[in-house]
Amino acid sequence: LRHLHIGQALPVVTDKAKRLFERFNSIKNKGAGDKTHMTDMKSMLNQMPNYKREEQNCTAFVQLAEDCYNLYNSGTAVKQIVHLEQELATGLNEKGEPIDSKMS
What we know:
Blueprint: H1 6-32, H2 38-72, H3 78-90
């Protein structure tokens, strides 16, 4: 996910969180039956640290994305700096017209 645009990264995280939730529910439902064997319980317990770690990673990413979005829309100069950076990087303004390269 590193170095991906937020628009590309967010669907990946959403899908990962959905799969994680489904996997946790399948483990939970599997443990709810009366016929759970000790080996099944051991497997579920072994998977819990991985589940917790993945859950924390997804939560951290969503929080970071939310913080960035709030900062971008907070009225600070971030929005203007982002637009300026894009114009300098592409050489085009928002309308797709070439920018004037003269600094005056």
